[in-house]
Amino acid sequence: MGILGPTSRCPDTRQSPAPPSPARMLLPLLLLCWEWGARAASPPLPTASVTLRLLQINVFHNASSTDMEGMALLGDLETHSMDCSACQIRFLQPWAQRGLTPKQWQDLELLIHRYLFNFNRTVNRIAQQQGMGYPFVTQGSLGCELHPNGTSRAFDDTGVNGEDFISFDADAGTWVARQGDKLALYARDLLNQDKGTAITLQFLLRTTCVSQIKSFVQHGNESLERQERPVAVVFARAPPPAGTPAPLLLVCRVTGFYPRPVRVAWLQDGEEVAPGGRLSSSGILPNADLTYQLRSSLAVEPGDGHSYACWVEHSSLGGQSLLIPWGATRMLDQGSPGPEGGTGPGMGIGPSPGDMDLGAGSVPGSRAEGPEGRTGSGPWEV
Predict the structure, then answer these.
(1) N or C: which end of the chain has fewer CB within 10 A?
(2) Alpha-carbon gap, residue 331 to 196, rounded angstroms
(3) Is the C-alpha dihedral spanning 194, 199, 204, 210 positive or negative?
(4) How far, in Å, CA of 189 to CA of 272, rounded?
(5) Residue 9 included in any domain
(6) How many angstroms separate the CA atoms of 266 and 298, rounded?
(7) Would the pTM count as exceeding 0.70?
(8) Residues of the chain with confidence (pLDDT) below 70
(9) Among the listed residues 60, 99, 61, 65, the one whose alpha carbon sits nearest the alpha carbon of residue 80
């Protein structure tokens, strides 16, 4: 990902035509060249909702030093980034250059040069006029979401120092302050003075962006629809010292799955454990290999006589589910430690909880092979 630093700047644009008004400071010229795609033959609609999102982060160290990062995401797949040592668009997927001609991509880079020059100059001027101290950070997220029924949602949100600052209402064609302070209100009023920019931005977000999603989905369908099966393991955190009254924490680690949506639940004697204080989750986190991971924890009382299992649903499993029982009895009988101080994991593909009748020391169905050929078998009873 490119960085625009004090000694690594985009080409000087002082000889270019007169810059746009200050109200254009947030105009996403990253989308301007994609207007051509809006007039092309429209590819089919996606089978599921897809979002095209452009992200831009600027760090303003002082009035003459700015770092910048930029990227484009189709769904959760990074498709483009910017190397601002020369302000070149990098294509991160083999199909990411489709949809525009090489000349159109070159024109887009030129527009980005001008956009960055004007954006930095205008933001610095506003900061100085409003007495905003350096350093500060701006974050932009803009694009659109296209649904299978043909409807779409446009968005353009800007934050300052990690807090919501201002947004563009694509339906009304106006800017809305997300804070009530003087700086946000000043920026809102300034931007709303430029009606021409608002009309252009509406077209870019509601028409051009939607058309480009269709084109990218058509060319990148194989990447977007790839399926990676989850690998799951259940273990226990190291128990507290003897005599310390504390519950045992069971952890279900699920990793290596793609796409992002996943469902992880805990079963007690075959019944799903209801949300509450016993459950906690890391949330879905990214892996370095463009897959995802999640950890779900369940607090149980040692020796309570119940059986426990982690249940995982994911689209890559073809309608089945992973059932990973907790092997506490096996650990107590055999003394075999598992990962991170817990017991050895059970792995298997099984039916949904409604089809199961988990009794103490048993698991439904036959011994089943799970991811990477690993298997699981009973008994599993705390």
Answers:
(1) N
(2) 70
(3) positive
(4) 52
(5) no
(6) 7
(7) no
(8) 1-43, 83-86, 238-245, 328-382
(9) 99
